[in-house]
Design goal:
The protein has 75 residues and is mostly helical. Helix content is 49%, strand content 11%. The protein is globular.
C-alpha cells in the first residue's frame, strides 16, 4: 500500500478514536480500504480486533481476517 512503514496510517479505531470521533474513524478505514483495493489485494489480515471491526464495517468488497483465522485455515 502507498502508506507503509513509517508513513502507515492507523485503521481509524486505535486509541479510542472510534468511540470519540466515529466519523473520522469511518473515513480513515474507508481510505485504507481504498488503498488496499488499489493494490489488487483480495483480503486484509490484522492481529487487532479493533482494526478488523473498523475495516470490515466500511462497505468494501475486501474480506478482513484476524491472523488467527488465517492460522486456523492453515492447520
Amino acid at each position: 500500500m502507498e502508506r507503509a512503514k513509517e508513513y502507515a496510517w492507523c485503521c481509524g479505531a486505535g486509541g479510542g478514536v472510534r468511540e470519540t470521533n466515529p466519523e473520522f474513524a469511518k473515513w480513515t478505514a474507508t481510505e485504507r480500504m481504498k488503498e488496499a483495493e488499489s493494490t489488487g489485494a483480495e483480503a486484509l489480515v490484522t492481529a487487532c480486533p479493533h482494526c478488523a471491526q473498523n475495516l470490515a464495517g466500511n462497505g468494501s468488497g475486501l474480506k478482513v481476517y484476524d491472523v488467527v483465522e488465517i492460522l486456523d485455515k492453515a492447520i
